[in-house]
Design brief:
229 residues, alpha/beta, globular, 8-stranded parallel barrel, binds cytidine-5'-monophosphate
């Protein structure tokens, strides 16, 4: 089940397919398609990447009223992706609507607090009085109550999510860097090996692979470290 998911943060179809073409037939990485690429190319890019044999995490982070999320998720459920997500801040009712619309056609996970949100901003701008870890554990429990399969969180939070929701509840974690690579704009980072030790089920890795001189080698190295193979 554990795997490395490459964040395909490319602006368009051309660059995405050019990137994926570097991987040999028979070695198809799990990929993440996010808002930028989806908004630029629409559902066609999802179908095209899927037709090439990749598993897909469609990272659109839905957050709206339950009825709208239900209808949007019904549309997305027809794309045949492997993982979809919503914001836990949308409430249990909204997450439940998403689950009902998606059924078991894909794993469904919730974003707890974005890793870009600091505890100070959470308190001062969002007026959330609880501390970050308590908020994340609470949102994860809400996601579980709504029937979701897991959450997206920092690898540093995977343990507290598992403590709150059980070991089978998935922790999908971005913020991964090799020990010797640049942090870029990520702050709370860990290596693939450390993410495994901390209990991550899937690591989401962007620039350490997409910007590497040899992306296929970087992906293999990442899998080797994360899966301890
Ligand atoms: O290039 P990098 O490895 O930093 O990419 C991480 C990916 O994970 C990006 O697609 C980013 O949007 C996403 N992500 C994140 N932190 C979150 C949620 C998603 O970095 N909390």
């Amino acid at each position: 089940m554990k795997d490395v998911i490459i964040a395909c943060d490319f602006a368009d179809r051309g660059r995405t397919l050019e990137f994926l073409a570097q991987f040999p037939e028979g070695e198809k990485p799990f990929v993440k398609i996010g808002m930028e690429l989806f908004y630029a190319e629409g559902p066609a890019i999802v179908r095209e990447v899927k037709a090439r044999g990749h598993r897909i995490f469609l990272d659109l982070k839905l957050h709206d009223i339950p009825n709208t999320v239900r209808k949007a998720m019904t549309v997305l459920s027809g794309l045949g992706v492997d993982i979809c997500n919503v914001h836990a801040a949308g409430t249990v009712e909204m997450m439940r609507a998403a689950r009902e619309a998606l059924g078991d056609r894909a794993l469904l996970v919730a974003v707890t607090q974005l890793t870009s949100t600091s505890e100070q901003r959470m308190r001062e701008e969002l007026l959330i009085g609880a501390d970050m870890n308590a908020t994340i554990a609470h949102y994860a429990r809400n996601a579980k109550a709504a029937g979701l399969d897991g959450v997206v969180c920092s690898p540093l939070e995977a343990g507290l999510v598992k403590n709150a929701c059980g070991t089978d509840f998935l922790a999908i974690t971005p913020g991964i860097r090799f020990a010797d690579s640049a942090a870029d704009d990520q702050v709370r980072i860990t290596t693939p090996a450390r993410a495994r030790e901390l209990g991550s089920d899937f690591i989401v890795v962007g620039r350490p692979i997409t910007a590497a001189a040899d992306p296929v080698a970087a992906w293999r190295k990442c899998k080797k470290e994360f899966l301890a193979i």
